Amino acid sequence: MSAAYGAPLRPMLVRHGLLLIAAALVLFPFLWIVAAAFKTQIALLTGQLLFQPTLANFMNVLFSSTSDYVRNFSNSLVIASVSTVLVLAVATLAAYSLQCMQWPSWVLHSLLGWSVIFHMVPPITLAGAWFSMFRTIGLDNTYTGLILAHTTLNLPMALWMMGVFVRDVPKELIEAAKIDGAGTPRILRHVIVPLVSPGLAAAGILSFIFSWNEFAVVLTLSQRQTATVPVAIGKYAQENTIAYTEMAAASVLSMLPAVLLLLIAQRFIVRGLTTGAVK
């Protein structure tokens, strides 16, 4: 009996062991940053594994007179939130138009193909052109310019996701609403949006996180007044010194919004990324 039970147990133990190793490899950088945030600079540079935790790094990041982190954090919240709302609105309207308004197939395929190509372009290649354009029209170093840039970067991804969800809405419901005299705004509000709410949640969370983490475009288009969290973290690396522990503390604080969103709506993200994968 022991041999019979031992045979199926071995593959299971191997599988769980491999999963634990993979989890440790994924979590190690995160745990290292969290530990560094509570160390002194000397303890970090000397590689001390046992150390006395300190909150001085967080205090310096949040309350030091030379730190702009709180302002940068609020800038990120404003830019990521507003750009996410714009992305969802435009992507939902575009997806409804493409999937439900009888466009020729070449229009649908051309737009979706172009959005994929644009999404593959590195953002840094666009930053210089946007800087020149925004400076000409007076939008450099403004929230408006950064919001428009982030909306443009995240729109292709949201368009593809919302296109899949809108395509799966039963056409009979839309036709029934039209027979009842509903116009496009009413159909969108009472039929489309309730049915594609998981897609809106998934696309919104991903757009927010991508906007929150964007660095190259913000570095080019912003100055001290409008800089965001990634730029703030980069400022701790100066020419003559690098404040590793304060950089780690700022990084830990920057993870909080993304982690909170992922914990709240992780099932929507999984559904949004896998919808249509087996069709």
Automatic annotation (TrEMBL):
Extent of the signal sequence: none
InterPro entries reported in the protein's UniProt record: BP-dep_ABC_trans_perm, MetI-like, MetI-like_sf
Residue ranges of domain ABC transmembrane type-1 in the record: 73-265
Membrane topology, as annotated: Multi-pass membrane protein
GO cellular component: plasma membrane
Keyword terms of this UniProt record: Cell membrane, Membrane, Transmembrane, Transmembrane helix, Transport
Subcellular location: Cell membrane
Listed transmembrane segments: 12-35, 75-98, 110-131, 143-166, 187-212, 247-265
Listed GO biological process terms: transmembrane transport
Coiled-coil region: none
Family: Belongs to the binding-protein-dependent transport system permease family.
Protein name, entry field: Carbohydrate ABC transporter permease
